[in-house]
Design a protein that fits this description.
Elements: H1 7-17, H2 20-32, H3 40-43, H4 49-61, E1 65-68, E2 72-75, H5 77-95, H6 105-126, H7 137-147
Antiparallel strand pairs: 1-2
Helix pairs in contact: 1-6, 2-4, 2-5, 5-6, 5-7
Length: 161
């Protein structure tokens, strides 16, 4: 299944998905429901306005969130599935004391996504499926990516004039 993606696609996707602002946005909406646009900066106050805007734009571009008039920013089915992947990833990291015995949710997700990227990229390069202590997380990540190929797409290079 890993041969569906190149190493570069896997690294790009995991880096994008493990972006702290995106993790914060997705998990905040997942935990607490839709966020009215005017309250976004107040609810996620630990992010700069720039990082928050970038996270929202990234989430919209990849179909993770949508704006619902009168309700606010809410997760799509794809965004909800990503929130589930974040939860599974953080649980694995907590059980394995990664990156440290005491870590926050975002750090756990980032660290484990880095491990997943390395494991999946190795699998993609040699065409085999190495058994790792990551258990079923590789499978969960691959299933999510297979259902959301827009996240693995590398941007087209700008034509040179």
């Amino acid at each position: 299944m890993t041969t569906l993606f190149t190493s570069a696609e896997l690294h790009r996707a995991t880096a994008l998905l493990a972006s702290p602002p995106l993790v914060r946005l997705i998990t905040e909406i997942d935990d607490n429901g839709a966020i009215p646009p005017r309250r976004l900066a107040g609810i996620i106050s630990d992010l700069s306005r720039h990082h928050l805007c970038c996270a929202v734009e990234t989430a919209r571009t990849h179909g993770l969130v949508r704006s619902v008039p009168g309700v606010g920013l809410e997760l799509t089915e794809t965004g909800s599935a990503l929130a589930d992947l974040y939860d599974a990833t953080a649980r694995w990291a907590r059980r394995h004391n990664r990156p440290q015995p005491v870590s926050d949710f975002t750090s756990r997700v980032r660290h484990t996504f880095d491990l997943l990227a390395a494991s999946l990229a190795t699998d993609a390069l040699d065409g085999s499926r190495a058994e790792t202590d990551l258990g079923g997380l590789c499978d969960l990540m691959l299933q999510w990516l297979a259902g959301n190929p827009q996240v693995t797409a590398l941007p087209e290079p700008e034509p040179v004039a």
